[in-house]
UniProtKB/TrEMBL annotation:
SUPFAM superfamilies: PapD-like. This is MSP domain-containing protein. It comes from Haemonchus placei (Barber's pole worm). InterPro entries: Ig-like_fold, MSP_dom, PapD-like_sf, Sperm-specific_class_P. Residues 1-109 form the MSP domain. Pfam families: Motile_Sperm (PF00635). PANTHER family: MAJOR SPERM PROTEIN, MSP DOMAIN-CONTAINING PROTEIN-RELATED.
């Protein structure tokens, strides 16, 4: 099972960075892939990766400056084949029927300026 902390990313209109810890609480090695509903305003690193059992990795989400709106990031994962070294290849080899996913909301909020 995969868990993401924090489960939501919040940015102001000037942009910024949000780090998310992705944890594999299971007993098998997992491979993950991350998709975004808005690739123009967000950069996500890494997009593909492995997470060993009872381990974590950090995913960095960078938001460019822009108007307030809500987007989403989808994290997909599946048990990783043992011999494959490239996470993108491992994900592509996985059966689509076994892929699980979760949504992380990425929200940009308006900042009121007091003069």
């Amino acid at each position: 099972m995969l868990k993401v902390q924090p489960p939501k990313a919040t940015f102001n209109p000037i942009g910024g960075v949000s780090n998310h810890t992705v944890t594999n609480s299971g007993k098998t090695r997992l491979v993950f892939k991350i998709k975004s509903s808005n690739n123009n305003d967000y950069g996500i690193h890494p997009v593909f990766g492995f997470i060993e059992p009872s381990s974590s990795t950090v995913v960095k989400v960078t938001r460019l400056p822009g108007n307030p709106k809500e987007d989403k990031m989808i994290i997909q994962w599946v048990e990783a084949p043992g011999t494959v070294k490239d996470p993108k290849e491992a994900f592509q080899l996985a059966s689509p029927w076994l892929v699980q996913s979760m949504k992380v909301i990425m929200e940009v909020y308006a900042v009121s300026l007091r003069i």
